[in-house]
Amino acid sequence: MADSGKMLEAPVAHTRMAPVSTPVQSKSKKVHYPFWFGGSASCFAAGVTHPLDLVKVRLQTRAPDAPKTMVGTFGHILRNNGFTGLYNGLSAALLRQITYSTTRFGIYEELKSRFAKPSTNSSSSTSPGFLTLLGIACASGLIGGFVGNPADVLNVRMQSDAALPPAQRRNYRHAFHGLVQMTKTEGFASLFRGVWPNSTRAILMTASQLTSYDIFKRLCIEQVGMGDNIGTHFTASFLAGFVATTVCSPVDVIKTRIMTASPAESRGHSIAGLLRDICRKEGLTWTFRGWVPSFIRLGPHTIATFIFLEEHKKLYRKLKGI
Question: What is the block-wise mean pLDDT of the chain (322 residues), using blocks of 10 residues?
C-alpha cells in the first residue's frame, strides 16, 4: 500500500508544477514600449552631439574663404561666436528630434512588434526578416521626414546663420520665433522647403540606421555570442552609424543646400538643376563633402541614441516589474 501511495503522489506533483512557468514566460517576453521613447532618446543624444552637427552644416554650406577642415571650422566658430556658438540652433535641433525622431522610431517599433512572428521553440517572438524591417523603416522614415521638415529647415538655418554676412542673417531667437518669422515672411510653404530631399534622406537614414542596428545586434548576439548588454549596443550602433553616414551623405548635402538657399536663389531651380550646377562647379566630390564630420557627428549620435533607447527600455521593464 505504501508503494501504491508513492506512485499516486508522483503524477500529482508533476501536474502541479508543469503549468507554472508557461504564463510567466509569455508575460516576460511581450513588452509594449511607449511611442515617445525614440524621440526622448534622440533628444538626449542631440544634446551631446549638437556641436558636431553644427560643424557639418557649416562645412556643407561654407563660403570659398571659410575654413575647409573640421578643426578649422571649430576654431573659427569659437573665435567669432564663443563656446555658446557651438550650440546655435539647439532649440530647433531638439524640436526636430521631438517631431522627426519620435515619429520614425515610434512607427518603426510599433510596426516591428506587429510583424514579429511567434518562435517555434519558445513563447517568445522573433524579429521580422531583413526585407520586412527594410520596408517598415522606409515607411517610418517617409512619414517622419514630412512631420519633421519644418523643424529641420529651422535647424539648418539657425546653424548656418552665423556664417552668413550680417545683412543676410535671419537672426531667429529660437525655434518657435523662427517658425513664426518663416511663415510671415515666406509663407506657410517655406516650412516644407526641401521636403522631398529631406524625406528621401529620412527614408535612407531610417532604413540604414534602424534596420542595420537590429541586424548587427542580432548578429552580435546570435553569431558572435555576445550578451544583450551595453557592449553589444555600442558595437551595433557604431556599425549602424557608419552605414547610415555613407548611405545618406549625397542626399544630406543636397538637402542642406536647398534649405539654406534664399528665396531668390531657389526661385526657378529644381533639384535636377541644382544637381547639374553642383556637378559642373564642384565635380563628383560634392557627394561626400563633410563625410568625416558627418560620421563624427552621426556615429556618436547613433551610439548615444540607441544606448539611451536601450536604457529607456531597461528602466521601463524595471519599473513595470518585468
Answer: 48 46 43 92 92 82 80 89 87 92 95 78 67 94 94 86 82 89 90 87 93 95 92 96 88 74 61 73 70 82 95 94 84
**C-alpha cell at position 139:** 515607411
Domain that holds residue 90: 36-320
Cell 519599473, located at residue: 319
CB atoms within 10 A of CB 88: 23
Query: What's the chain's length in residues?
Result: 322
Residue 218, C-alpha cell as written in the block: 542580432
Please give the angle made by the CA atoms of 220, 144 and 194, to the nearest 5 degrees.
Answer: 120
**Which cell goes with 217?**
545586434
Q: Tally the domains of the chain.
A: 1
What pTM does this model have? 0.73
Strands 125-126 and 117-118: antiparallel
